[in-house]
Amino acid sequence: MNADYSYLCGYSYAWRIGYKPEAFERLEKALVIVEQDPDSEFAKKLIVRDRALAEQIMDSYGKLGFLFLSRDYIRQVNGKHPLAHIYVSYHLYNFIYDCKAFLDAVAVMLNDFYLVGKTRGYIDFKHELFRGEIIEKEPKIEKIIRKHEDWFVTVSNWRDKLIHRFSTTIAPFTSSNHWPTEEELDQGSLQPCMMLVEPRPLLRPHLKELEKKYGKRIMFREIDPFCKEWIDNACDFYDQVCNAISQTLR
User: Fold this and answer.
1) CA distance 164 to 230
2) Are 244 and 220 within 8 A, CB to CB?
3) Does a structural domain hold residue 7?
4) I need a surface site. Which of 35, 80, 206, 211 has the fewest CB within 10 A?
5) What does the alpha-carbon distance between residue 244 and residue 8 come to, in Å, rounded to a whole number?
């Protein structure tokens, strides 16, 4: 179900499935004025007080929406298509990339709004120095940053490893919990795919390290709970950030 629409929602998929930060109403009142267009009796005219901030809010909210979209595509095919392991891999990679893009968008927004003054690669929540300077500028968000700082680093590590070196192998399993044969893949007699618990090189000798560490079956984890954990963290963090900004704008 859609939440009430506001200008700051833009075209985000997050709004379309019903997630919108509570602070958006206050942010819209502070940032956007809707007036009657004097040249048309039917048209409205938008006056945006801080266009840069409004665009950054819309950008970060749009990227958060991509997390929900990737998760929903995974749900549509996982365990329901003979090539699910391929489609799930594609959307899971996008999910991880988009999560890092979302955090980077929020980092840029806070860096600009609170005049932190960092540039380029230093605007990143994985850096303790950057987190500390944001907290120094706005103590109200210290609690939420401290709560998620391990997750910030986790997201960054997953994204960096997938881009540069490793893979999060997506494994199809049959109802008897073994790797499927080509015939079973063709028949689609599969359970939902699972993912490696951490990114690893693709070659089999490296996977054996995981088997020793976690056990042959436990080295894989379910994908939907992984996505839910990251989405819950992202929404919790975004709610508090938007709330802090809205209070500053009052």
Assistant:
1) 21
2) no
3) no
4) 35
5) 16
DSSP states along the chain: -PPPP-GGGTT-HHHHTT---TTHHHHHHHHEEEEE-TT-SS-EEEEES-HHHHHHHHHHHHHHHHHHHHHHHHHHHTTTSTTHHHHHHHHHHHHHHHHHHHHHHHHHHHHHHTT----GGGS-TT-HHHHHHHHHH-GGGHHHHHHHHHHHHHHHHHHHHHHHT-B--EEEE-TTSSPPPHHHHHHT--EEEEEESS-B-SSHHHHHHHHHHH-TTTTEEEHHHHHHHHHHHHHHHHHHHHHHHHHHH-
Quick: pLDDT tens for 42-69: 555 556 678 899 999 999 999 999 999 9
> What pTM value is reported for the model?
0.85
**Residue 1 pLDDT greater than 50, yes or no:** no
User: How many other CB atoms are found less than 10 A from the CB of residue 239?
Assistant: 17
CA 176 to chain centre: 33
Backbone dihedral angles phi then psi of residue 11, each to the nearest 5 degrees: -110, 25
The residue assigned the tokens 């954990």 is: 229
Give the domain extent around 164.
Answer: 79-249
Q: Count the domains in the chain.
A: 1
Residue 210 tokens read as 């995981």
Report if residue 64 sits inside a domain. no
- List 220's β-bridge partners, or say none: 196
The Cα–Cα gap between 112 and 139 comes to: 16
